[in-house]
Specification:
single chain, mainly alpha, about 50% helix, Blm10_mid, Proteasome activator Blm10 middle HEAT repeats region domain-containing protein, PSME4
Length: about 240
């Protein structure tokens, strides 16, 4: 449950921003074990998803119904309820500039220090390295819907062997703001950092299999994750969307 503490729409995150920041400042330094790191960084991912993703907003009647007794309102009675597609008007969250500014703030304050540390990995303990890599990966996952793709030319890989087809279409308004850091592409920043780190690990720490594995997972995330797909939208919205 801890990694879904802040699974909330952007509106509530912004209204309680000081508390959100305060919680992140407490949990993100936790690195006594990998599990603590995973749970802490998952909270950061949830916050960034709420700020950067496009998703259905909560029904205005749900919160009011949640305050009623079970005799007055029982949620199971509304499961599989039908709607009139001609009159139903779902409300969507599309990232605003304020959302993106807050996400950029989190990247500057919590993610960039991890990348700076990984740029000089000499003598770093395995536990610390794992913490840095996992935090960066969860941040990329959470913000991926608002992160521009890599800069530079595109290369067709249709004829290359692949274990599974990658298909992550993301519908996004052309005028929606995107997340950059001082005008720089976040994916490119992370990619350059991970390439350098991977070279170091292969040369000096080839027995650190866990760190190498996580770097590879992060590289895959950078290349394949463009935001929430249909499954991700369902999981993200499940907690607070109701017709």
């Amino acid at each position: 449950m801890a990694d879904r503490v802040l699974k909330a729409p952007s509106q509530y995150l912004l209204e309680n921003w000081d508390e959100v920041r305060g919680l992140l400042e407490i949990v993100l330094p936790l690195k006594k074990c990998t599990l603590a790191t995973e749970k802490a960084t998952a909270i950061l991912e949830s916050v960034l998803e709420g700020l950067c993703s496009i998703y259905l907003l909560e029904s205005p009647t749900r919160r009011a119904n949640a305050d009623k007794s079970m005799e007055e309102d029982l949620a199971i009675r509304h499961w599989s309820a039908t709607v009139d597609k001609k009159t139903w008007q779902p409300q969507w969250h599309v990232p605003s500039q304020e959302d993106i500014d807050k996400a950029a703030e989190l990247f500057r304050d919590f993610v960039m220090p991890q990348l700076q540390a990984l740029a000089s990995p000499q003598g770093m303990e395995k536990k610390d390295m794992m913490h840095h890599i996992l935090l960066v990966r969860n941040a990329v996952l959470g913000a991926s819907a608002s992160l521009p793709f890599f800069e530079g030319p595109n290369y067709c890989l249709e004829d290359s062997p692949s274990l599974a087809a990658i298909d992550h279409p993301v519908a996004r308004p052309v005028n929606a703001p995107v997340l950059t850091l001082d005008g720089k592409n976040v994916r490119d920043i992370v990619l350059d950092n991970m390439k350098t780190l991977l070279d170091y690990l292969f040369e000096h720490c080839e027995d650190d299999v866990k760190s190498i594995q996580q770097v590879v997972v992060l590289l895959n995330t950078l290349a394949s994750c463009r935001g929430l797909n249909s499954v991700g939208i369902f999981l993200f919205s499940f907690s607070f969307v109701s017709v």
